[in-house]
Amino acid sequence: MFGCDCCCSVSSLVYLVGLFTIASKVIPFLVKKYKGNKPAELQEKNFKKDTVYLYQFPGTPTSSSLSPFCIKIEAFCRLHNIKFERRNTLSERGSNNLLPFIELNGEVHSDSQIILRRITQIFKLKAYPDEQTASIGHAVDRFIDNHTFNIILMGKSTVFGKCVGVMAGDKVPSFLLPIVEFLGGKFGGNMLFTRAATSVGKFKEAEQRELLRNDLLQLQTILGKKKFLLGEEPTLVDCTAFGQFGSHYYAVPSARFYLHDVLESSEFAPLKDYAERAKNRLFGNEFCDKK
Amino acid sequence: MLGCDCYCLNSFVYLVGFLTIASKVIPFLFKLVKGEKLIELQEKNYKKDVVYFYQFPGTPTVSSFSPFCIKVEAFLRLHKIKYERRNTLSTRGSNGQLPFIELNGEIHSDSQIIIRRLTQIFKLKFSLTTKIQEYPDEQTAAIGHAVDRLLDNHTFNLRLMIKTGVDKMIREMNSDTVHPVFLPIVASLGGWYLSNKMVNRASVSVGKFKEYEFKELLRNDLIQLQTILGKKNFLMGEEPTTVDCTAIGQLGSANAIPSSRYYYHDLLDSSELAPLKEYCERVKTRIFGDEFCDRK
Questions:
Q1: Which ipTM score applies to this complex?
Q2: Which of A181, A186, B10, B116 is the most buried (most CB within 10 A)?
Q3: A289, A64 contact by CB (below 8 A)
């Protein structure tokens, strides 16, 4: 009896896992083949001229989006008074399979770096007042988005369950929410950590904190006595910086981790003041998910 | 007939299932059994205050294939820290990567952490000969840090997306260990596998771009670097600092195999980026002299 049950369940399990693994490789391959390299269809068919349709992750009552890169794009549009309309989505993706992406005058642009370059070119904007400032701004911008972001992700991965809970909040019955938070936290948290480790390296918790603290210290030094990172007026890199603060510090207040402790310490009061200043200057009182 | 095919198909499904389960369970069991065992010291009879520097090997034109290894060696040379190279293909640090160092019986992994530790360890307050300052002042340190991260976390990944030349790199790295008959196969298969892995890593790190997009972004990175350099000898001033070590790592490692040219080399050879190219030569000469190569 035991032998029979054991054998049957184990071999069924092996068979099932085999089927699943094969399906998980073959199906995306077939879908890709079928879809071909057909250009992504426009979502907004009757688009208004010179209006950016921003496809982004939804936000919360305390953030315009859960994603720092989505916040960055909206901040940049607001900074330069570019007409835009938010299109919250969980399932749509750009041509790079990520969010945010935008549609502008019938064209689709994906990846926040590329989007900002295209908006700057199309609307003939000056992202920075001069070339020297632009070069420093670019370095700080990449430092924040490609390093600080990943170090923050490592710490955030431990409380990611709370973010999942917020995302799923109104879509899932309340008795299921703790389970969704737990599973989402474990699974999503691992994915976040792996992504971050691939990007910047594997660090122990003490090293993560050291590197995060150092990054924030250097940012605060760059800020100095100025109102914004590179001067008295905000520039592109302030949109980038605020994207990260917005997503990780403001978006889900219950998802507290090391970043919150650091930003709320007296040593980093100037940086926290800067984050508030950027929020007010860039978003006014609209830094939330409007319903 | 169909029944027979079905049987083969069934066996295949079982095999895939079995391999998938094994590939998850075996490392898990292994980890459980090994536990968090500390990595053993390689250099048992180490000399005091000498850095044993474990890195990927180089070629006649670069000290190492890896920009992060070049960066650490450049830092050691810049600050005249005694060190000994230990070329390796298989040894790894506690983070599963290279470079790592051993210093006075302690192991430090990850190039960022290594440089931070070296600065802390060799910082003797009142001794001018051994004091290490990464940058002359706090403001320069802040900008230097930003440029350092731009190079290592952005420019690096844009270069990884250019898949050419990986097979040549594998051939060069294994020319002593693999028989010449097998070398072409090892190089092509290894090159295909590794270049896909590199592109995936780069995509996770900075995003998925079409070819013309990552070329645009790479050109922009180099132009911004050149603007930061301006009329100075080095990125932050008239003397080299940590970020110049990072720069020679990222920019210098592209010359590992001179016959392997791609978009990056065309950019650096263009008149638009002549100052940046001169800067690379200047850093190489200043920090490595004529030793920017794999000594045998």
A1: 0.88
A2: A181
A3: yes
> How far is residue B84's CA from residue A271's CA, in Å, rounded to a whole number?
42
3-state secondary structure of B182: coil
Burial B212-250 (b: 16+ CB within 10 A, else e): ebbbbbbbbbbbbbbbbbeeeebbbeeebbbbbbbbbbb
SS3 label, residue B59: strand
In the prediction, which pLDDT does B2 show?
47
Report how far residue B16's alpha carbon sits from residue A15's, in angstroms, rounded to the nearest whole number. Answer: 8
**Angle (CA) A214 A217 A218, round 5°:** 90
Short-list B207, B201, B253, CA closest to B68: B253
pLDDT digits (tens, 9 = 90+) for A30-39: 877 776 666 6
| Average confidence (pLDDT) per 10 residues, chain B, 296 residues | 66 86 80 66 91 94 95 95 92 92 95 94 56 85 97 94 78 80 86 86 93 94 98 96 97 89 92 97 96 82
CB-facing half-sphere around the CA of A40: CA atoms within 13 A: 18
Residues of chain A found within 8 Å of residue B204, distances taken between Cβ atoms: 195, 198-199
CB contact under 8 A, B216 and A117: yes
Residues of chain B contacting A113 with CB distance shorter than 8 Å: 207, 217
Quote the tokens at residue B220: 């922009």
pLDDT per residue as tens digits for the range A101-122:
999 999 999 999 999 999 999 9
> Mean of the pLDDT values across residues A60-71?
96
Q: Tell me B224's DSSP state.
A: H
Q: What is the nearest CA distance from B178 to chain A, expressed in angstroms?
A: 29
pLDDT-based confidence at A2, cuts 50/70/90?
very low
Helix (H, G, I), strand (E, B) or coil at A248: helix
Check residue A271 and give left, alpha or beta (phi > 0: left; psi -120 to 50: alpha): alpha
State how far the Cα of B152 lies from the Cα of B15, in Å rounded to an integer: 41
Separation between Cα atoms, residue B162 and residue B156, nearest integer Å = 11
Q: Among candidates B22, B109, B212, which has minimal Cα distance to A14? A: B22
**Cβ-defined contact of B17 to A143 (cutoff 8 Å):** no
Contact A22, B13 (CB under 8 A): yes
The CA distance from A129 to A121, in Å, is 15
Residue A210 tokens, joined:
């050291």
